[in-house]
Amino acid sequence: MTGKSSDQGSVPPDGRPYHDQPQWRNDFPIDLAQDDLVSRRDFTKFLVLTSFAFAAGQVWIVFENWRRRRRGRLPIRKIAAVNDMAVGSSLIFSYPDAHDDCIVVRTGSERFVAYSQKCTHLSCAVIPEPQNGRLVCPCHHGLFDLATGNVLAGPPRRPLPRVRLEIRDGALYATGVEVRA
Amino acid sequence: MIRPRYSRSQKLPVMMGIVSIVLIILVLQLWLLTATMSAFLAGEGEVVIPAAAASLFCLALNGGLLVYIYRMERP
């Protein structure tokens, strides 16, 4: 590789000509006077690329929000027969889509509660503990109140989305999802 | 845009100023993104469009500043 001469813009820091410079300086002939400025320009370019990524993320949220609004009213879906669930038992079901796992717990003879099974922290599956009146996320020990879905302890900051339930003709139906702040 | 003419000693503070402004805008965009995502996950969809418009405006500002740097650097 040939080194740049001083008339091409590169000036070694000791001012000696290139043929007197060590080999490594000939192999990496960086224009020292321009070096910082070019680096900052490249750095700014990466910052703007990051800015583009953030803006793309915002557009993606708009798209997801539009999809959520477009979905409109959720379907009514049968979960189970009331008599198939004992008091204190739980059942996992999918609602409204096949990938949206939810959990229903029978807390009394006529009382059922159902929530999305995804923890609002990092989407681990929550596990009901009806005897303690709470749902537990095993990943980071998030605790949710079984009666309300509100956060009791741990890193989650939002309550679990609640699935609205109806009992019709001895069967339990999911009729909607209530996302709460 | 008129191409700015700066001496080498003038370019450095101008460059540092632009990088600082871009960084501040970037932090603002990051805050916007996290706040919007939090609101969206909480079921509040009203803020997403204004937030996206603000973020795109920030991107346009950053892009404009980058173009300014390239014009400033052009011999």
Characterization of the model:
The complex is a heterodimer of chains A (181) and B (75). Chain A has 181 residues and is an alpha+beta fold. Chain A is elongated and about 95 Å long. Chain A has helices at 23-27, 32-71; strands at residues 77-81, 90-94, 101-106, 112-116, 127-129, 134-137, 142-145, 151-153, 162-168, 171-178. In chain A, the strands form 3 sheets. Chain A has a 4-stranded antiparallel beta sheet, with no helix packed on it. In chain A, 21% of the residues are buried. Chain A has 2 helices and 10 strands. Chain B is an all-alpha fold and 75 residues long. Helix content of chain B is 80%, strand content 0%. Chain B contains 2 helices and no strands. Chain B has helices spanning 8-41, 48-73. In chain B, helix 1 runs antiparallel to helix 2. The mean pLDDT of chain B is 89. Classes of the chains: A alpha+beta (181), B mainly alpha (75). Chain A binds chain B through residues 33, 36-37, 40-41, 43-45, 47-48, 50-52, 54-55, 57-59, 61-62, 64-65, 68-69, 120, 157-158, 161, 179-181, and chain B through 8, 11-12, 15-16, 18-19, 22-23, 25-26, 29-30, 32-33, 36-45, 48-49, 51-52, 55-56, 58-59, 62-63, 65-66, 69-70, 73.
The N- and C-terminal alpha carbons of chain A lie at a distance of 63 Å
Structural class of chain B: mainly alpha
* Beta-strand content of chain B: under 5%
Largest sheet of chain B: none
How many helix segments of chain A? Answer: 2
Largest sheet of chain A: 4 strands, antiparallel
> Strand-and-helix sequence of chain B, N→C?
HH
Structural class of chain A: alpha+beta
Structural Rg of chain B = 17 Å
Oligomer: heterodimer
Let me know the average pLDDT of chain B.
89
The largest sheet of chain A has its strands arranged as 5-6-7-8
Mean pLDDT of chain A: 86
Provide the helix percentage of chain A: 10-25%
| General shape of chain B | elongated
List SSEs of chain A in N-to-C order. Answer: HHEEEEEEEEEE
Largest interface: A-B, 31 and 40 residues
Q: Measure the end-to-end span of chain B.
A: 16 Å
Q: How much β-strand is present in the residues of chain A? A: 25-35%
User: How many DSSP H or I helices of chain B?
Assistant: 2
Low-confidence stretches of chain B: none
